[in-house]
Design goal:
This protein is of the alpha/beta class. It folds into two domains: 325 residues, ANL, N-terminal domain (Rossmann fold), CATH 3.40.50.12780; 102 residues, 2-Layer Sandwich (GMP Synthetase, Chain A, domain 3), CATH 3.30.300.30. Helix content is 32%, strand content 25%. It is built from twelve helices and 21 strands. The strands form five sheets. The chain has a nine-stranded mixed β-sheet with strand order 4-3-5-6-7-8-9-14-13, sandwiched between helices. Strands 10-11-12-15 form a four-stranded antiparallel β-sheet. It is globular and about 70 Å long. The chain binds 5'-O-[hydroxy(phenylacetyl)phosphoryl]adenosine (DLL). 5'-O-[hydroxy(phenylacetyl)phosphoryl]adenosine binds next to α6, β7, β8 and β12.
Length: 433
């Protein structure tokens, strides 16, 4: 089954000409509606008439997360707010999140691309899908929700966490498909054993896992422990959310919905476009989005592209499973985290020094986040209860800024190793890559 043959099975030439036409239309739209893009194009000596097709894509300037931050919250929107009907957000590099706005057409596009993702994974009308991605500002829950409704599956909008209830629903409602992060899938697999349940008692047959990097080994473990097919799905809020790319049943690269999101691979240092097949940073131009269209958006995700034919019949280019990034963003329990977010919380507090170490671990398939923080000498002279209160204060400030639980450990001044070059702020013991 293919959801939309007229888009997913075009010849390479047909796709390129469709993309080219959509690209020149997009450039015209952003030039006249978004001052940021107009200025950047003018600085580059470009006018919309110069962008006639795909050959001109490389002439356009890049857009970064910093640009979104500089124009926080709605400065890059290309339609009036009256046309926007939904907002989502993801972590920014410091205090402010990255905000994404959708028009009604954008929500329809999103449902369409997620419906393709579901179909890619062999999920259809007869399935009961348990959506255990978080609902809320994060795009995972609601994104998969609308796509699942579009294909006509039975949707269980349980959201993330509450493992006992997840297990109960899996059993009582007979869920045949599950959507969550791959690490949570492994956690569930172990919880099933702990609760004395057996995977063969469940009806689960497939899972769509993403929002964080995972390895082939994790896939094998999930597939054998849960006795399901584990499909990798990729997306990012800025571009739309889930639905950007998905593996098909061949499990050999993720088909990118390139009629909506044109991919390029660049060298993250020289910013040169790399030839097909080379590994580099993935860049997207969203040609059909209205609310927040992005021109050559640097995802920071590292991968390579392959447009050779796929046995499934889709001709959409495939990206290799993504395992690394060209920046320092961490993904902990599916939540994006930049070390700079922690730093900005600590800098705002007079009691702490901006010396800290982030220690990430994965125990029983759940990520844990510990932050060691240096505090002023005097606090170690104080009563233990005062030290405890300070620890609690830092912890709750961090937790509310990050949306993640954090274990804070206070250490005396000068105990965190100073580095002579680039500061090492993160020890990641998870070994995902
Ligand atoms: O994680 C959207 C999503 C939700 C995708 C549910 C798949 C399933 P953000 O929170 O903006 O959006 O995080 C985007 O997560 O740039 C990647 O670094 C990482 N990421 C997402 N999917 C994958 C994946 C959602 N399958 C960031 N493999 C992206 C590796 C992934 N990394």
């Amino acid at each position: 089954m293919i959801w939309n043959k007229s888009r997913e099975c075009l010849s390479r030439d047909e796709m390129r000409s469709l993309q080219g036409a959509a690209l020149s239309e997009l450039v015209e739209r952003v030039y006249y509606n978004v001052p940021f893009y107009r200025e950047k194009m003018q600085q580059a000596g470009l006018h919309p008439d110069d962008i006639k097709g795909m050959d001109d894509l490389q002439r356009l300037p890049f857009t970064t997360k910093q640009d979104l931050r500089d124009n926080y919250p709605f400065g890059l929107f290309a339609t009036p707010m009256s046309e926007i009907i939904r907002l989502h957000a993801s972590s920014g590099t410091t205090g402010k999140p990255t905000v994404v706005g959708y028009t009604r057409k954008d929500l329809n596009t999103w449902s369409e691309v997620v419906a393709r993702t579901m179909t890619c994974a062999g999920i259809g009308k007869k399935d009961i899908i348990q959506i255990a991605y978080g609902y809320g500002l994060f795009t995972g829950g609601l994104g998969i929700h609308y796509g699942s409704e579009k294909i006509g599956a039975v949707v269980i909008p349980v959201s993330g966490g509450n493992t006992k209830r997840q297990l109960q629903l899996l059993q009582d409602f007979g869920s045949t498909a599950i959507a969550c992060t791959p690490s949570y899938a492994l956690f569930l697999a172990e919880a099933i054993e702990e609760f004395g349940m057996k995977p063969e008692d469940l009806h689960l047959r497939v899972g769509i896992f993403g929002a964080e990097p995972w390895t082939e080994n994790m896939r094998k473990e999930i597939e054998s422990k849960l006795r399901i097919k584990a499909i990798d799905i990729y997306g990012l809020s800025e571009v739309i959310g889930p639905g950007v790319a998905s593996e098909c049943m061949e499990q050999n690269g993720l088909h990118i919905n390139e009629d909506h999101f044109i991919p390029e691979i660049i060298d993250p240092v020289s910013l040169e476009v790399l030839p097909q097949g080379a590994k580099g940073e993935l860049v997207f131009t969203t040609v059909s989005k209205e609310g927040l269209p992005l021109v050559r958006y640097r995802t920071r995700d590292l991968t390579r592209l392959d447009s050779s034919p796929c046995a499934c019949g889709r001709t959409l280019v495939r990206m290799e499973k993504c395992t690394g990034r060209s920046d320092d963003m961490l993904i902990i329990r599916g939540v994006n985290l930049f070390p700079s977010q922690i730093e900005s919380v600590l800098l705002e507090m007079s009691e702490t020094k901006p010396h800290y170490m982030i220690i990430v671990d994965r125990k029983n398939n759940l990520d844990s986040l510990q932050v060691e923080v240096e505090v002023e000498e005097q606090f170690f002279m104080d009563k233990i209860s005062q030290l405890q209160a300070l620890r609690q204060k830092i912890q709750s400030n961090l937790e509310s800024a990050l949306g993640l639980s954090v274990d804070v450990k206070l250490v005396e001044p000068k105990t965190i190793q100073r580095s002579e070059g680039k500061a090492v702020r993160v020890i990641d013991n998870r070994k995902i890559v």
